[in-house]
Hints:
Elements: E1 6-11, H1 31-43, E2 48-51, E3 59-60, E4 63-64, H2 75-83, E5 90-96, H3 102-115, E6 120-125, H4 130-133, H5 144-163, E7 170-173, E8 178-181, E9 187-191, E10 196-200, E11 212-215, H6 220-229, E12 232-233, H7 240-252, E13 265-266, E14 269-274, H8 278-292, H9 295-306, E15 332-333, H10 344-358, H11 362-369, E16 374-377, H12 379-391, E17 397-400, H13 410-415, H14 417-422, H15 435-439
Parallel strand pairs: 1-2, 1-17, 2-5, 5-6, 6-11, 11-12, 12-13, 14-16, 14-17
Antiparallel strand pairs: 3-4, 3-15, 7-8, 9-10
Amino acid sequence: MTKQVHLAAHFPGVNNTTVWSDPDAGSHIEFESFVHFARTAERAKFDFLFLAEGLRLREQNGLIYDLDVVGRPDTFTVLAALAAVTEHLGLTGTINSTFNEPYEVARQFASLDHLTAGRAAWNVVTSWDEFTGENFRRGGYLPKEQRYHRARQFLEVATELWNSWQDDDIVADKESGTYLRRPDAGSFTHRDDQFDISGQFNVPRGPQGRPVIFQAGDSDEGREFAAAGADAIFSRHSTLDDGQAFYKDVKGRLATYGRRSEDLLILPAATFVLGDTDADAADRAHEIRLQQVSGQTAIKFLEQLWNRDLSDHDPDGPLPSIDPLPGENTVAKGRASVRIHRDPRDVANEWRARAEADNLSTRELIIEVTGRQSFIGSPDTVARTINEFVQEDASDGFILVPHITPGGLDEFADKVVPLLQERGVYRTDYEGSTLRDHLGLTRPES
Length: 446
């Protein structure tokens, strides 16, 4: 059976994707940037817009990291404002489960779901570093296994709060013409090792039953967390084979939780570069990568792995001959680097072998290792490749991250989307009103 392609748009606010030097690059804070981006996504019939989260300004060598975005408006404020200028587009926000509390987050998302008439989604994430935790009352950080344990409990409590209202808890009084709430609606009690709360939840059940749940972890714990309760999961796998392996692994975990394959969507993030021909697109992509990874950016990224001040290192020369410093990462704060996933010395040796084999300078190597899954080519090539990934079960669609804000999505909407529509694998109009409708997800029972 031919699958339908799902597409979404990531407002690129907390990474090095944006080409800041491009004259078309705009603000990541002014509301008009969000409006342009969201309206383009809706014009292209995308499922949803996705906002990442930045809880603290990043630092490196004791200074604010100035090669990335240096501000991030509050997620709920932006999404609530976008609800007024969009009609169909889903609105997905990344909210942390390590430092927030379930009642507050559940209430905010339930309110957003009502405000948008059923278009709200929550990307559940954990926070790994003590640096970010200093902003919050709880402080500190949690070890990896405790982070996911808290996240699971957090989502469980939020779901209980949403489900504390039944669909028929608000009834119409025919005599007075008013609506009445059943006395026990919203009642809840939850006690475990993370939360001890009770009371009455004060937001009725939303149009979607509960907001759509996204999860972004790629570890084994993250995959299991997604299989247990998420509606969609992101991945970083860039090749067809790797994507198929991830797809099969995650989908294979669903039966354990009594779920079907279609209950969880696999939606990797992806960049794209278009050209009149494939050769034109390749040339343009090369220039974009050079702009994204300047010599200064390459050194900053190198320092995150080496855990040293390498400001005197030549980005056009070879990699450092010295090894990375062991121990906690003290150079970069607020950035999840390769150090937290693998032994940095092993990674450094892999980089050296790759640089030697391909005769790459430091900057050229960083360009290679920081590249994301990208679709590069003519509009026809990109449309064909995206469809291939979906039909061959390497994904269910993609979350697109343009390199220019806010107009970087326009070209894709105008040139690639019509080709996918011609193939019959992408909608020509929205058929439902909620994000669950767009994603083909069923509404949870009350």
